[in-house]
Each structure stands twice: as C-alpha cells, then as structure tokens.
Design a protein that fits this description.
Blueprint lengths: L7 H4 L10 H7 L37 E2 L24 H23 L21 E3 L10 H8 L41 E6 L2 E6 L5 E5 L16 E7 L2 E7 L28 E10 L2 E9 L8 E8 L17 H21 L2 H6 L7
Antiparallel strand pairs: 1-3, 2-10, 3-4, 4-5, 6-7, 7-8, 8-9, 9-10
Length: about 375
C-alpha cells in the first residue's frame, strides 16, 4: 500500500526496500544543494542548453547510459503556490526555509540509525530540492490546469487507498500501486518519497529505462515501428523513440487507466492519488544531456478528455553511479488489501446492525444484575 506513513508498523515486514541502506544512498548522492545566489530574474527558466556533445555508443547514438536517481528532487513540489505566481525560483528567504526543512530530512536516517530506531527518516529518501518553485514549468503559473467536467467526475470516482472515507469490498477498489502491480505512467518518472532510482540502458535500436519503484522497465524501440492498435494497452503505455540531434524524444500512448498519472497525493486540493486517464492521453518526453553527469528531462502530458490544457514538467537529472537499487518485495505478504476489505466490511456490518436496532429490541434486552 502507498499509505505507508499510516501503515508503517504493519507493512515493514513485507515492503523490503532496503531500509537500512537509505542513509548510505543519501551519502552516495551527489550534492544537490543550490548554494549559489538566486537568479536576478526569478521568473525566467533558462532554456535547455544544447551546446554539449555527449560521447557516442559503439553504434553511433548519444550515450545516455548510467544511473540517474531523482531522490535529490524529492522535496520539490509538483506545483507552486498561488502566491508565488510566475516565479520559477525561490527567493532567498524561501530557499533558506526549504533548506532548513531538507536538512532535517537529510540527517533523519543517520539519527535514527544511531538511536537504533526505525522511522520515517529511513523511509523517506529526499535529499534536496534546489531553488525551483515547482516541477511544473507550463502553464506559466506552475500550476496544473483546470480539469474538465468529465475529468472532475472521474477524479471523484477514483479508487485508491488514499481516498478518505472510501469503502473497500474487492481488489478493484484499489489502484494499481496499492495492488503492487505498477505505479503507472507517467507517475513512475516523477519523484516520490523513496525508490527514486532510474537507470538507462541502450542497445542498437533500443533504449531501456529501468525504474526502482516496483522494478518497472520501459523498453523503447527507435526503429520507427508503428504503435500497436489502440485496444492494446499497458500500465506503462507503448513508447516509440527517435533522436532530434542529441535529444532523445519519446512519444507514449496506449496507457492503461487505473494508475496515477501524477503524484496526486502531493498536490494540495486534490483528494486522492488516482486521476483516471482517457484513451486520448499522450506523453512526450525529451532527454537532453547537458554535461557528462547531467540530463534535462522534460515531459508534456496531454489528455483533452481530462484536462483543459496540456502541462509540462522539467527535472534536472544528476548522474550517481553509487546509487543502488534494492528489492521491492511488495507482493510478498501484502496483507493490507485484505485488511482494508475486512475492516471496511466489518465497519459496514456494524453500521447496519446499529441502524436495525429498534427501541423495542433494546428494551427487551436482558438487564445485568447490579452488585
């Protein structure tokens, strides 16, 4: 289950994500702290640099191979506050406040380990956030566009363990992440509280993006093959890639609905973690190496049935070959789906029994003797 902040004690035995190694992961992460002064114009995001020429693979493609974890972006919110307006970067006061919060997170695992304790410090892998106000760079206000009426209706009907007050009666009352199937796409490409590893492999005609969370792997052909029929869908969608100069462009469709397209749980005002996708959902990603250890990752998501406009995120990836992937043993001992169902059924039965109890029945109930 994703609601691990609530179910920590119950799920520690079955969610083997290498908790004792989190502090080592953080120590191995490259410095992600933007210590330089804020840009003079806080509203301008510089364009993606294109003057770096990456080395080539043996077959002539730009070489993106390596480990690119995004744990250093775990503290960066999906969208900025309304008060921040069109500011792409934090001012000095905001940045100091964020760094103070992040410093507690950076030291939490080590503090717990020294105290021989296991808590959120060993679960949450967020080592930085930088100066950006949000992952979103379009729309210009750094906030998600309005949902359509259909989108709002589907959102309200979303099924997930994140939904407060929801009833659970069978496995289809949970999303794909609750059921340890997949975090889905494009959510899997965005930072979360833990398991933020991304690794790229390449072979002639293919790029593979390997993900630490639930160990999904995206196999992306580069040979101009057609998309599969629209009826053929998968949790990660069907992706086709091509090169535009040194930039890898990936177009994805045929995405199976039922997994979260974005980190809904981290966005204020959105009540659950699952926003349904329509069959018109499309994603375009652009990966550009801007240095030997840096990639700018851009993703544009569009779904005219659900959203009134497309939206775009931009992430600055950093190479970290010291980052290790650990087993994500989610299915093993995943008793929480059953527990949710049993508890929900028991609560409803209790409510029905209380509703059917009449005053006459209560009066006929034998009285206990008083001492």
């Amino acid at each position: 289950m994703k609601s691990r902040n609530i179910l920590l004690a119950a799920t520690a035995a079955w969610l083997a994500v290498g908790l004792t190694s989190v502090s080592a992961q953080q120590a191995a992460a490259p410095a992600a702290r933007a210590s330089a002064s804020a840009p003079q114009d806080l509203t301008v995001l510089p364009p993606v640099p294109t003057n770096y020429t990456p080395k080539k693979t043996a077959w002539g493609d730009p070489d993106l191979r390596g480990t690119w974890p995004i744990d250093h972006l775990g503290g960066l919110p999906m969208q900025r506050t309304e008060a921040q307006g069109n500011r792409v970067f934090l001012n000095e006061q905001e940045f100091a406040e964020r760094e103070a919060r992040m410093e507690k997170s950076r030291n939490a695992a080590e503090t717990e380990t020294k105290a021989n304790k296991l808590g959120m410090g060993n679960w949450v892998e967020m080592t930085g956030a930088g100066r950006r106000t949000s992952l979103l760079v379009a729309p210009a206000n750094g906030r998600l566009p309005e949902m359509t009426a259909e989108g709002k209706a589907r959102m309200a009907a979303g099924r997930s363990s994140w939904v407060k007050g929801q009833t659970y009666d069978w496995v289809n009352d949970f999303d794909s992440w609750d059921r340890c199937i997949s975090r889905g796409f494009p959510a899997s490409m965005l930072p979360f509280r833990y398991n933020n590893g991304i690794r790229i492999y390449q072979a002639p005609g293919y790029v593979v993006i390997d993900l630490e969370m639930i160990h999904d792997s995206r196999i992306i052909p580069l040979d101009n093959r057609p998309m599969p029929p629209s009826q053929v869908k998968s949790w990660m969608g069907a992706s086709r890639g091509h090169w535009e100069g040194n930039t890898l462009v990936i177009e994805t469709g045929n995405i199976q609905s039922g997994a979260s397209p974005i980190n809904m749980a981290t966005i204020a005002g959105i009540p659950n973690n699952t926003a349904e996708m329509s069959d018109q959902a499309k994603v375009v990603e652009r990966l550009t190496m801007t240095g030997p250890d840096a990639i700018v990752y851009e993703m544009t998501y569009s779904d005219p049935v659900m959203w009134t406009a497309p939206w775009t995120v931009r992430l600055d990836w950093q190479r970290n070959e010291g980052y290790k992937f650990f087993e994500y043993a989610c299915h093993e001992g995943n008793v929480q789906v059953r527990n949710y169902i049993n508890a929900s059924r028991a609560e409803r039965e209790k409510a029905r029994s209380a509703a059917t109890a009449t005053p006459a029945a209560a009066a006929a109930k034998p009285k206990t003797a008083k001492n």
